[in-house]
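2024-03-11 09:14:02 INFO queue: dequeued item M23 family metallopeptidase, len=274
2024-03-11 09:14:02 INFO validating residues
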Amino acid sequence: MLRLLVFFFLTLSCLAPLAVYAAGAKAGSGVRLLVHEGRGGTTMDVRNNLDVPITAVLVFSRTVNVQGVGKRPLRKTVPARSQVRVATLRKRQAGYPLMYQHAFSYAMQFSPNPGKSGAIGGHAYALPWQGGPFRITQGAGGDFSHNTPKGRYAVDIGMPVGTPIVAAREGTVVDIRNDQGGARPDPSGNFVRIRHRDGTESAYLHLQKGSVVVRPGQKVGTGTLLARSGSTGRSTGPHLHFVVQKSDGQSLVSIPFRFSRPVESLPNFAMGGD
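2024-03-11 09:14:37 INFO prediction written
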């Protein structure tokens, strides 16, 4: 039976200012578009395992033998840790296939008012690079690597090797690595770690060998040049891995944070469905 290839796009969309979150549940289980196909049609649910609500968006095109959806985007609010049906596609004529393309994206609902649902407090981090605009290649809760306590709220931003990396917040440099040329020995590659006055730390990973220009104990301000971007450590291509962490008594754990400005988004194909 003829079917049109269905494209799945999971985009980490952003609101201004951008709020970066991830799943607090199982690894890689942040947001999922669940597609259920039956004899009479197809249903699409969005499962949100994040700790904040999202706005889910479905856009359909090239629909053939389809009723139940139009050309306008479908938008649904999906509360934190819940599942909502976003679309139901039914056949206009039984015995013929449904044919369509669709694109799926979502945006975390951010409110600057800490008293409102979906709000996140704390410092708004400046963008930790110069130049661009660049794109997010793996968001918080990503299936590839952002699925451990240390990194589940991290974000990867693709950028050319040699892009200036700057401090996203003032603080004191507590650790660096500057001598790694490839994937080993440290999965983080070359890095800079900065401790802030509230005890949290920001880390900048996969930096270019020999590019780090700060030293442990040095105080830096927002925008201070730290290093140049690279692709050292466990990296599939040139990018910056940025994460904010705090101590849980035994180790550092990743925590939600927000940027003070929007970051452009890129489809994230590390997505699953039923």
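2024-03-11 09:14:37 INFO annotate: The longest strand covers residues 54-64.
2024-03-11 09:14:38 INFO item closed
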